[in-house]
Amino acid sequence: MEHGDTLQERMEQNGMSRRTFIKYCASLASLMALPPSAAYAMAEALGKAKRPSVIWLPFQECTGCTESITRSHSPSIEGMIFDMISLDYQETLMAAAGHQAEEALHAAMKENYGKYVLIIDGSVATGLDGAYSCIAGRTNLESLKEAAKGAAAIIALGSCASYGGIPKANPNPTGAVAVSDIIKDKPIVNIPGCPPIPVVITGVLAQFLTFGTLPELDKLGRPKAVYGETIHDRCYRRPFYDQGKFAKTFDDEGARNGWCLFELGCKGPVTYNACATSKWNDSTSFPIESGHGCIGCSEPDFWDAGGFYKALSMPADPLKVAATAAVAGAAVGVAVSFANRAKKGAAKSAHETTTLEDLEK
Amino acid sequence: MSTIENISISIAGPDDMLTGQAEAVLTEVAEMLRRLIEQNIEDSIDLRSLPLSTVDRKWLDRQLGHGEVEILLEAGGRSVMTETAYPGVWRITHRDGQDRVVAEFVEVAWVPNIVKPDAGDVKKGYESLLLKLDGKSAGA
Questions:
Q1: Helices in A51-182 by DSSP H: which ranges?
Q2: Which residues are CB-contacts of B40 (< 8 A; sequence separation ≥ 6)?
Q3: The dihedral of CA B69, A25, A218, A301: what is its sign?
């Protein structure tokens, strides 16, 4: 099938009316905290935009980010937008494999040099010169440096590409780092989350195509519009926090009444993301609505932040506590460690239920 | 053995309070209406970008009330545009193909902007109508 060059032409071929597109742009503008009037400018500019070349390289990742995006909202307009960009390389989604795939990658980079958007998901292994993660015999480190040279902009998708994520968790055996630790001379937008909210990537792409600019970023390189407020700021349970009503366990009266999960370790107050408004699973809910606190997955080093069930008001980082103990006297730290291990061992041998307290040791 | 039905869950409404946001929205609407009348400037407020509680929304809808016009738009899902009790102030809800709310606005305009057809679309429609008339006269 012959496709037109612009998004407008492709939309018409797909039977999408202008008003449908304006509605879609209105929802994107709302998400990106652009004024409502930006929807019309966005629709007009996007309509005239040529299909952008997008190259998507997966590094040390679990494919969760790809799952998040490909399983969201399809087959909606958002899915059609993805059809409309020229996704020239994405190992999981493309039909080609092996040499054919590598040829497609290099052809796309050559043809669109200086113009393509590079999406990276997964962290970059730097240990043993990057040998921990290779594709087609080349390290991710090499591939990133090569692909970044011709990119107009880079989107670091997910917490791994943004901050190193779980591969970087202590003791970081592969020497995992974020994209921004390697590439210093290109605009990089971090879209963290484990996985990230799917519509954010479309929003960033739409803004880039519409205004030729990237969204305003916070100090951690995230779009302010999406990551400008904490989960806690927008949480529907926030009034309970203000009233001092907290669930103390996952099955007490407070939990059944839907009270604040702060004391059960919710990281909402220190986590910047839009889950409370955008929600998940086709806008069904977000973790706090399902009775579990936020684990802070869009924040750097969330995995090492001290335990998902430890309240923020308690010592947040057991690693730091351990380090302090070591400075104060190594024997104290060792003693605590042995005591905890002994408790867990005793619980195991006695077939006791593992408690939250045990998990935190 | 207890089943999930035996677990009594009563979710109290954390949304059961006015936050003051809705009142601020109403004040802004009044200002926008003044600009429409005096300077012919159309504008809108993105309700989803504001942390309005359920009670706030109900209060706001009550204050805005209903006017005489309701417009239905079927484009990639249903959109409802309702004139409020204040002519020129529209309450707009856009839904997608799966009937999920994707955007909500209070628009202050003579007619909601999205309702007006695009000049290019009108031209294409005109050309297609001429072709139809040509076909009819050729067939006649």
A1: 64-70, 77-84, 98-111, 140-149, 158-163, 179-182
A2: none
A3: positive
Which residue of A73, A238, A256 is in closest CB contact with B9? Answer: A256
Annotated domain spans of chain A: 50-226, 231-304, 318-360
Query: What global pTM score does this model have?
Result: 0.72
The answer to whether A237 faces chain B, any CB pair under 8 Å, is: yes
Cβ pair A33:B49 closer than 8 A: yes
pLDDT tens digits, B81-114: 999 999 999 999 999 887 888 889 999 999 999 9
Give the tens place of pLDDT for each residue, A312-339.
875 444 334 334 433 344 333 333 334 4
Q: Which of B51, B97, B118 lies at the smallest CB-CB distance from A76?
A: B97
CATH 1.10.3720.10 fits A231-304, yes or no: no
- CATH superfamily of the domain spanning A50-226: NADH:ubiquinone oxidoreductase-like, 20kDa subunit (3.40.50.700)
Domains of chain B listed by start with CATH number: 21-139 (3.30.1370.140)
**Cα-flanking dihedrals φ and ψ of residue A96, to 5°?**
-70, 155
A207-223 pLDDT, tens digit per residue, is: 777 777 788 899 999 99
Quote the tokens at residue A144. Answer: 């990133």
**Minimum Cα–Cα distance from B9: chain A residue:** A256
Using a CB-CB cut-off of 8 Å, the residues of chain B touching A77 are 76, 96-97
B97 contacts in A (CB within 8 Å)?
76-77
B83: β partners: B90
CA dihedral A360, B2, B3, B5 (to 10 degrees): -100
What is d(CA B109, CA B93) in angstroms, rounded to the nearest whole number?
A: 15
- Give the residues across from A220 on adjacent strands: none
The tokens describing A212, both together, are: 């030729």
8 A C-beta contact, residue A326 and residue A337 = no
